[in-house]
Amino acid sequence: QVQLVESGGGLVQPGGSLRLSCKASGTIFSINAMGWYRQAPGKQRELVAAVTRAGSTNYADYVKDRFTISRDNAKNTVYLQMNSLKPEDTAVYYCNADVWVHWFSSISTTYWGQGTQVTVSA
After folding, report:
1. Per-residue confidence at 103, pLDDT binned at 50, 70, 90?
2. Rounded to the nearest 5 degrees, what angle is found at the Cα of 15, between the Cα atoms of 34 and 118?
3. Looking at residue 78, what is its pLDDT?
4. Residue (of 67, 70, 77, 64) closest to 31 by Cα position
């Protein structure tokens, strides 16, 4: 099995910064895309940012120029640097990864972390 563990969430004032980390472990042959989603109370889960193994990135419009996603393939870890945080960024942030667990299988499986709470408040 594959496990994703997030860390780095917490309480921060508006304009502050946080850095989220997510490490994948378990039976992993390779990881394609990794990303971050978030879900606020009463809202749908939405994409924040994603990055492919080759380094191509995609960001939601509301976080462009504020958030940066990156990954370390050797460590199976993805990061989200969040700057200039706003109260509307408050949500549970979830890591996900598209994983090939065996070399002989062409089928990938998407895994999710347990989530980490980010609260932006004065």
Report:
1. confident
2. 45
3. 97
4. 77
* Token pair in block for residue 52: 């492919």
CA dist 95 and 104 (Å) reads 26
Q: Which residue has the tokens 């996603």?
A: 69
Given a cut of 90, whether residue 106 has pLDDT beyond it is no
**% residues pLDDT > 70 (the chain):** 100
3-state secondary structure the chain: CEEEEEECCEEECCCCCEEEEEEEEECCCEEEEEEEEEECCCCCCEEEEEECCCCCEEECHHHCCCEEEEEEHHHCEEEEEECCCCHHHCEEEEEEEEEECCCCCCCCEEEECCCEEEEECC
